[in-house]
Structure formats: structure tokens, C-alpha cells
Amino acid sequence: MTTTRDIVTAYYAAFNAGDTDAMLALVADDVRHDVNQGEPRHGKARFADFNDHMTRCYRERLSDMVIFAEGHRAAAEFIVGGTYLATDEGLPEAHGQTYRLPAGAFLSVNAAGKIDRITTYYNLADWLQQVGA
Questions:
Q1: Which end of the chain has the smaller Cβ count within 10 Å, N or C?
Q2: Residue 110: phi, psi to the nearest 5?
Q3: Count of structural domains within the chain
Q4: What letter would DSSP give residue 85?
């Protein structure tokens, strides 16, 4: 039996490996992706587009990961260590700035064992300061 904790752990392992295909394999077709800034994204195709965008603009690795799981819900706390690779629309110009940012996420897993909600939080003002805005 695969637990919610196992699924979420595999999702973040795929993230750290830069394996967006493995990440996509773990999410439901109707996944809801709530980001810290902006409108929610619905569906696997929009989540894939987001991952492509993030891969182009940022190189990130998560550390100090702590995952809490109960039933079909999970929460994760981690540090995002990253490099700002390409200018993201509406944000400061990228020139290889590095950052280290505390973040957290809430996730849920459906009965089929797929992640159907990912909600991520971080302090945008902290990130902006770190990249020199």
C-alpha cells in the first residue's frame, strides 16, 4: 500500500531530480495548483506548462524537507535554494542571482493515489530582496 507520505515524498524527490515527467505522473488529470501569487491553475496540462516555465526561469533544489501526512492530506516545509536563470514576467531582471527561501505546501491525494491539490506558500518580499529588487 502506498501512503500519502510516500506519494508526496516521491513528488518532491522528482522535483529535486529535475524530473518533471515523474512529477506529472504523480498528479491527477484534474490537479488544482494554487500558487503563492496569481490565479489557481487547473489540470495537468496547465501544471506541465507551469513546470516548463519554472525550469526555464529557475533552478531550484529543496532541502530541510519535513513532511506531515494524515489520511489523504499532507503538508511539507522546506528551504528552497535556487538560482534565478531567466527574467520572469513582472519580476526583476535575472542575472544568475541565488536565493535561499523558506517555503511550505499543502497537498491532497485522491483515492487513485494521485496528487489532486498543491498549494505553495513563500515570502515573495523576501525573494525580491534576495534577488536585488
A1: N
A2: -80, 180
A3: 1
A4: -
Segment 63-94, tens digit of pLDDT: 999 999 999 999 999 999 999 999 999 999 99
Name the CA dihedral angle for 103, 83, 46, 8, rounded to a multiple of 10 degrees. Answer: -40
CA pair distance 100, 61, nearest whole angstrom: 10
Give the pLDDT score at 12: 98
- Spell out the residues 6+ positions from residue 23 whose beta carbon is closer than 8 angstroms to its own: 11, 14, 15, 51
Give the span between the Cα atoms of 91 and 61, in whole angstroms.
20
Place of cell 536565493: 99
Please give the backbone phi and psi of residue 19, each rounded to the nearest 5 degrees, phi first.
-100, 80
Query: Cα(25)–Cα(45) distance, rounded to whole angstroms?
Result: 12
